[in-house]
Amino acid sequence: MSNFENNLFHIDRIQINNPVFICGMARSGTTFLTHLLNSSNYFSTFKYKYLPFYKTPIFWSYINNLFYLNKKKRQRLHGDNLKIDINSPDSFEELIWKNYLENYELKGYWQKIENDQDGELSKNLDIFIKKTIHINKANRYLSKNNNNIFRVKYLLNKFPSSKIVIVIRNPIDLAFSSAKVHFKFLKYHKIIKNFSDELSELGHYEFGFQRRMFSLKEKNLLNHKHIRFKTIKLYLEKYNELLNFINKNYLKEIDSKKIVIFNYDNLKNIDDLSKLLDFLNIEINDDMRIYFDKNFALQNNKRNSRFKHKIDFKEFLNLSKLSII
Question: Would you say residue 325 lies in a domain?
Answer without folding.
Answer: no
